[in-house]
Amino acid sequence: MAFLRQVSRLLDDDHRALLDLLGRAEQAFARPPSDSQAGAALVPLLRQLAQQTAHDIGHHFDFEEHALFPRLVDAGDAGMAGLLTDEHAVIREVAAELLPLTQAAVAGTLDAAGWRTLSLGTLELVERQVSHIQKETMALLPLLDDMLDDDTDQQLALAFAEA
């Protein structure tokens, strides 16, 4: 889908990069490693996933919640803003549960039960993020294309890029 506004394109670029990473994580955890030694090959992917999740939850979610969702509410679409905000909260919770497991996996101290928990949590994160991104791609980004004028779009695009 080709978006007209800079903000929509920037968010879509973030979404596409995350979808690629989530796809690799889903494949990697389709058969979870049974111990630290087997999971050692996943360490680079886990580092990247943790870093990207922190970016998405920090920068991307915060930008949407502070700069975009209030505009949706003002435009009469409080339902969408509320739904996406609620999904952000759930994704944050899943990510918070995964962080200590990811750190233990990277340190080589995660046991077999921990790997199973990390695997299930990663797959849940993938499922929730993919569903969320689909909603934003199909509903939020087209709304932004219609709702934003050129000046506002430029200001928001700069704010997103600088943050």
Could you describe the 3D structure shown?
- The structure is a single chain.
- The two termini are 25 Å apart.
- The chain has one domain (6-26, 40-162): Up-down Bundle (Four Helix Bundle (Hemerythrin (Met), subunit A)).
- The model has no long low-confidence stretch (mean pLDDT 92).
- It has 6 helices and no strands.
- With 163 residues, the chain is mainly alpha-helical.
- The relative contact order is 0.19.
Write the layout of secondary structure elements.
Blueprint: H1 6-28, H2 36-39, H3 43-74, H4 78-107, H5 112-147, H6 150-162
CATH architecture: Up-down Bundle
Specify the CATH homologous superfamily. Answer: nmb1532 protein domain like
The N- and C-terminal alpha carbons lie at a distance of: 25 Å
| Overall helicity | over 70%
Radius of gyration over all CA atoms, rounded: 17 Å
Weakly predicted, low-confidence segments: none
Fraction in beta strands = under 5%
Major β-sheet annotation: none
What top-tier CATH class fits best?
Mainly Alpha
Structural class: mainly alpha
- Total number of domains: 1
Number of helices: 6
Extended strand count = 0
Gross morphology is elongated
CATH topology: Four Helix Bundle (Hemerythrin (Met), subunit A)
Give a short summary of the structure.
The protein contains six helices and no strands.
